Amino acid sequence: MRTFHPRRGRLSGRHLDALDRLWPRYGITVPDEPATVPDEPDTVPGASAPVPVDPAGLFDRPAPVVLEIGSGMGDATAAMAAADPTRNYLAVEVHTPGIANLLALVERRGLENVRIAQGDALTLVRGLLPAASLAAVHAYFPDPWPKARHHKRRLIQPSHVALLRSRLVPSGTLHCATDWAEYAEAMRTTLTADPELVNAYPGFAPRPGHRPVTKFERRALTAGRTVFDLIFHRR
């Protein structure tokens, strides 16, 4: 079940050029339905598991890895990676124009600590990322699925949180942000209920300076919506 709205968009010549030249170096394709990583509790008996991603090999260096779920047009990811060169950033996105734009930003800014995965983030995490392989997971402004009948599609729900948390190292960070108040409360309830996560703050977190303000967030603020941050750590 998808947790995102598939979107279409036109690719400019610049974006087509970026995909053609840069994808082989910086990109990985997420298989549609890979089996789970071996030796995980949710492994399907008898399933042939794919080779998990080796973060050190993927980035050509050992460093803590931050997973960016839904990197959009890539501006925030590029800004954070540029300001945080000691960590590696793995962005996962389904929207091809956004992927192409991030590739162009990576080249323009000379960022060697960014890689991009195209596909479903949960499929990537479940099938290709080993347990305790991530220093942080960022889920900034995931689709709120505001209609009650669609809440089952939300990214932040108990089973998905348990999966994401299992890929965090001890004391690793799960950072979520949303501009939908009802979703924010649901996120807080879900994250608080996970026995292996601890809230870094008594409730919602103050807006952290390391999270760039994007055009999406500016539109939300202009529309009068409050932005909520939640920062939890794995025990």
From TrEMBL:
Reaction equations catalysed: guanosine(46) in tRNA + S-adenosyl-L-methionine = N(7)-methylguanosine(46) in tRNA + S-adenosyl-L-homocysteine
Query: Can the keyword Magnesium be found in this entry's annotation?
Result: no
EC number per UniProt: 2.1.1.33
- GO molecular function of the protein, one example? tRNA (guanine(46)-N7)-methyltransferase activity
Q: Which residues of the sequence carry a binding annotation for substrate?
A: K147, D179, T214, K215, F216, E217
The cross-references to InterPro entries, in alphabetical order and at most eight, read: SAM-dependent_MTases_sf, tRNA_(Gua-N-7)_MeTrfase_Trmb, tRNA_methyltr_TrmB_bact
Q: Transmembrane stretches, by residue range?
A: none
Keywords from the named record: Methyltransferase, S-adenosyl-L-methionine, Transferase, tRNA processing
Indicate which residues the UniProt annotation says bind S-adenosyl-L-methionine: E68, E93, D120, D143
Q: What class of enzyme is it?
A: transferase
Q: Does the keyword Electron transport apply?
A: no
Pfam families under this entry?
A: Methyltransf_4
| Pathways per UniProt | tRNA modification; N(7)-methylguanine-tRNA biosynthesis
Family of this protein: Belongs to the class I-like SAM-binding methyltransferase superfamily. TrmB family.
Q: Which NCBIfam families match?
A: tRNA (guanosine(46)-N7)-methyltransferase TrmB (TIGR00091)
Query: Per its database record, what is this protein's job?
Result: Catalyzes the formation of N(7)-methylguanine at position 46 (m7G46) in tRNA.
What is the protein name stated in its UniProt record?
tRNA (guanine-N(7)-)-methyltransferase
Per the UniProt record, the source organism is: Micromonospora zhanjiangensis
